[in-house]
Design goal:
Length: 74
């Protein structure tokens, strides 16, 4: 996200529940609470990233719930 907009336009948001700040599971990759989830196929090829409505962070990380690429995620 910084690549496209630069650091000056970045969204900084505090986590509301420290136990849900960063998540990773068997079928999903690193994510930020339930706000951003990274998932893919069974080969751990995490090609889909989903941003959901604000749940575990104070501010919305993105203003859309559309999927976005791994490159944008990094």
């Amino acid at each position: 996200m910084y690549k496209e907009f630069g650091l000056k336009d970045a969204i900084f948001s505090k986590v509301k529940d420290k136990d849900r700040a960063i998540k990773a599971g068997a079928s999903d990759g690193p994510g930020f609470g339930d706000d951003i989830k990274c998932y893919g196929n069974s080969d751990k090829n995490f090609e889909n990233i989903l941003c959901q409505k604000r749940r575990n962070y104070e501010k919305e990380i993105r203003n859309t719930e559309d999927k976005f690429s791994m490159e944008d995620y990094e």
